Amino acid sequence: MSGPLLTEADAPVLDNSFRNVLVLYGLPDPEASKMAKLEKVIISKVLKDYHIVEHRFLVDEDGKGRGVAFLEFETVEAANTALVALDGYKLDKKHTFQACLLEDMDRILKTEDEFQAPPEEALDSKLNELQSWLLNSDCYDQVALRYQNMTSIGWNMRNRVNIACEREGWSELGVQWSPLGSYLATFHQPGISLWGTEKFERINKFAHMGVKFIDFSPCENYMVTFAPATPINEKDPRSIIIWNLKTGEQMRGFMPPRKYRSAHGEVEEMWPVFKWSHDDKYFARMTDADTLAVYDTESFKKLDNRGIQITGLQEFAWSPRDNVIAYWQPEIAQRPARMGILDIPRKEDLTTRNMFSVVACHLVWQKSGEHVCVHVVRHNKKKTQLYSDFQIFHMNGKDIPCDQLELHRPVVGFFWAPEGNRFAVISGQHPMTRVETYSLESRKIVKHPEHLDITCESVFWSPTSQHMILADRFKMNSQLVFVDANTMETIRIVEHAMVTDIEWDPTGRYVASIASASKTQVDTGYIMWSFQGNQLHKMNRKHFFQLLWRPRPKELINDDDLKEIRRNWKKYQTNFEAADKMMMDQADEETLQARRAMLEDWSDWQMSVEKRLSELRARLKKLRPEDQEDIVEIVETVEVPVKVEEVIVE
């Protein structure tokens, strides 16, 4: 036998990494006589749930413990699980464990003792890179697509999405944009990763094993992660963790949310557990004992170290403009239901209003924070019928006045317009529903005369509030009705089977209807429409899960500049139309080139086949005899006798 048994490519690769070895320090350091007992306690109690292949507790020359142990696990996944659980574990009042992977020790040991801040230029450059997508010369918006095991980020170019970054296995569960669009969050078993910059580099990662839910603060200073399967530890809660996005520091851990019982007696689990103030200064949650706990982000402790007692608290919502909270309480015994607006941090009611015969309420703030609506569901005196009314509080008025709109019929939903003081109401019972619009003029509710009698369950306003889509989702014959919001005239009615979600782009020019595989298995994918209901392009993919537009931060342009732009709109419109035409011509040219390439491929294939056929004919010709006259044609005639009988039928 000659030659090597294994080639270099087939040779086994030795894994020299220590990704499955954990370094545990912060342990007690007893005398030599007590080391065996310490090892037994740590292995049998603290580490009993982990499959450890080998362990070693370090001791000095006299056998005294040095407070450090090396733990080897069967797999890297097991080591990562133990890392999350053991880092910060409190053994007793004096000893808190710290853990890291052995392969990270070299990096830690090389870290300078004194912190050296990066130059300000580097920080500014990094910040600018996070906002680089806003500098697109054509002002295209980015969109995230997730299907099968693929995640793509692309530019919406009207008749197609031009992919800018695409990775397989980028996220295990889903993706989520931060509120201002600076970060893309991906889910992994060990935790969350944040990505940004033009090339979508990893900005930071947050270790939280088994994380399923995340939420960002409005200004992107903090992130909340929730891992439902985390073991409950009241002394060191880790089910919910709040992180500092800039530093990656863990600010505080919390116990998992309890299940709240709604006014209808249904058990529902509420996420997000914490709700944030508009400026990231405060966050709040409902606790078990009818208490509203409000925390500040300077100390991450309750204001005045105690909660706000609100008996029977059902729901609360922060204003998007001011540090005030709207809340409501149900009827209890002889006390009526009550809605209030609470000032933070003074913890004082700015206004309250009693309500009677209340079954349920829902709080909806207007985007600008100037108004808040309380959708109240009531029953009649005999408790045989339900009807709705709307209590609208005007935050800019003296003593916060309130107007009431009463509808003596069932209400499906209430929907504020993103801009201005208009709102839409769907009333009636499915499938006989009516869509009406109202506006607030001089702090009075004015009903618009136009309405639509159409089957729908949701209203999706465009970001500019000029158009809306009326949708009846989750049906095989789901219809999308494009409506001019100013005149309530129907522009176009289109169909999208089993549509589950409607997503407007930040400009209001485009809207996507989505059939997500997480909610349906029929024709999953999306269709991109113009605001007038014209289909621009579509994509059908098996196991299509998400289409998410990248949010844009609030524009910095002032009102005077906006007025100047509107005044010269016709000039800009001509330029935009020319750019759109050029883009469409380019797309047509690309399509034409693709067809030409296909035609050339077909011609090349046809020529190759004809060449092979001519070669085959030449070979066959050589096999034939040269003298065709030597071939004698033999014709044989065969006669077959036929017997004929004549039968006469009388």
UniProtKB/TrEMBL annotation:
Record CDD domains: RRM_eIF3B
Keywords assigned: Cytoplasm, Initiation factor, Protein biosynthesis, RNA-binding
Membrane listed as a keyword: no
Record localization: Cytoplasm
Molecular functions (GO terms): RNA binding; translation initiation factor activity; translation initiation factor binding
HAMAP family according to UniProt: eIF3b (MF_03001)
Protein purpose: RNA-binding component of the eukaryotic translation initiation factor 3 (eIF-3) complex, which is involved in protein synthesis of a specialized repertoire of mRNAs and, together with other initiation factors, stimulates binding of mRNA and methionyl-tRNAi to the 40S ribosome. The eIF-3 complex specifically targets and initiates translation of a subset of mRNAs involved in cell proliferation.
Quaternary structure and partners: Component of the eukaryotic translation initiation factor 3 (eIF-3) complex.
Designated name of the protein: Eukaryotic translation initiation factor 3 subunit B
